[in-house]
């Protein structure tokens, strides 16, 4: 196969029938025939001498005399390409990437509105977690939220744009508006995250659980959930978020916001016990900088290889070539029957 055909097939597109491009070779004798005919053809009208026309500059019609030939040649090339069926790529590709399976369990109880972190605990946690997600493009990451109840906001996915958008939409108004029970069901949040990881084939399975309180709701205790996590080989990293002492909390009183200082009650013992039982770590984040530092430390987790299979769909791409061929033929016919029309 000629080198030009190989380049066309390799770099521009995939062709269903690349061997049909050999038909382009038929254009070579056509070009040779046209050149010979143009230079050796008999004159249409004979005159005694052409000396009087030697100094006459060529007209624009004269300069367009070869355009119909070029248009016919272009149309032929486009038709051959259409017959070869140009297509976009369609292939499965397997590649190994470094990554782990992670479930984020986020507390969205009303106490997360406390403003000891800026602008509040929830917004600070969302911002840092989103940075963490963006920095791990090869990981399967999901999101579980909990207050007095728990549910999965996003199953594990590598589509981190969707995950981050769901993260940005998190608010504490679900508990405030009664959509879910208020409270802090740490055990339920942990158990929900475990249910998403238990069937994972990854060598490293991790839960990052963030809360600002102590377990006071739910049907599963944090200790029981930790034992379940350990049985499935899941490491749990727990983060207690909130300052020491008291925190500024916005309270809605008669339609007006009043700020109260509420005590910070984080059950560090329980969070430490969960981390110890699952060979994880417990972290205490008292401000925005410390919270970011916590996620940076977790980011140093070991990574395991995953096989990712990518699929690229095939689409027929002949339309543009067919359109060019039709346009070239139409323009050639228009020129030949109008401004370049020959009178016998």
What does this structure look like?
The chain has 344 residues and is α/β, with parallel strands linked by helices. 39% of the residues lie in helices and 23% in strands. The protein has helices at 3-12, 27-40, 60-63, 67-83, 121-134, 160-168, 173-176, 186-197, 222-231, 268-277, 288-298, 319-337, and strands at 14-15, 86-87, 91-99, 101-107, 140-146, 150-157, 205-211, 234-241, 246-253, 256-263, 282-285, 304-312. The strands form four sheets. A six-stranded mixed β-sheet has the order 6-5-4-7-8-11, with helices on both faces. Strand 5 (140-146) and strand 6 (150-157) form a beta hairpin. The longest helix has 19 residues, at 319-337. The protein is elongated, with a radius of gyration of 36 Å. It starts with a helix and ends in a 7-residue tail after the last helix. The relative contact order is 0.16.
* Contiguous uncertain segments of 5+ residues: 1-12
Question: What is the string of helix and strand elements?
Answer: HEHHHEEEHEEHHHEHEEEHEHEH
Question: Which outline best applies?
Answer: elongated
Note the quaternary state here.
Answer: single chain
Rounded mean pLDDT score = 85
Number of strands: 12
Structural class, by secondary structure, is alpha/beta
Binned, the helix content reads: 25-40%
β-strand amount: 15-25%
Counting DSSP H or I runs of 4 or more residues, the number of helices is 12
State the strand order across the main sheet: 6-5-4-7-8-11
Distance between the termini: 44 Å
Biggest sheet architecture? 6 strands, mixed
- Give the C-alpha Rg: 36 Å
